[in-house]
Amino acid sequence: MDHHDDAPFEPYGDFVADCPARLAVDLFAHAWLPVVVFALKEGPMRPGRLRREIGGISQKVLTQTLRRMERCGLVERRRYAEAPPRVEYELTQAGKDLLVPIRALGDWAFRHADTVLAAYDDCTRTAG
pTM score > 0.85 for this model? Predict the structure, then answer.
């Protein structure tokens, strides 16, 4: 059976490399991006609070991640003309829609983390 027969997507070209799903995989390849999306799920947040909510992320990496997300249309940056200036980030609809696969990955991790970690430990012990 052709693997495209049951796919809910339109044909994407002659090569697997043309698949638009690569875009999603690329987004998830950036380790902090899904974490930032999840942290913003409740609504707009200032960078300082966002960093505290996430924990373990440097200011530089958070700024880079937010800029990348803004370029990708996943967050909207709002700057308020106050003294001192105030900035907030909020998920766009595209960013909110990413919560679906993020939650699905979280569910998978919850169900299979022990198995993966045990296999990793076994592999590490036999290699060492």
Answer: no
| Backbone phi and psi for residue 82, each to the nearest 5 degrees, phi listed first | -125, 170
What does R_g of the chain's alpha carbons equal in angstroms?
A: 19
What is d(CA 80, CA 92) in angstroms, rounded to the nearest whole number? 18
Alpha carbon distance 72, 34 (integer Å): 13
What is the per-residue pLDDT across 62-72, written as a single tens digit (0 to 9) for each? Answer: 999 999 999 99
Distance (Å, rounded) from C-alpha 70 to C-alpha 89? Answer: 9
Short-list 27, 31, 102, CA closest to 69: 27
Gap between the Cα atoms of 39 and 49, Å rounded: 10
Report the distance separating Cα 117 and Cα 83, nearest Å.
Answer: 49
Tell me the residue length of the chain: 128
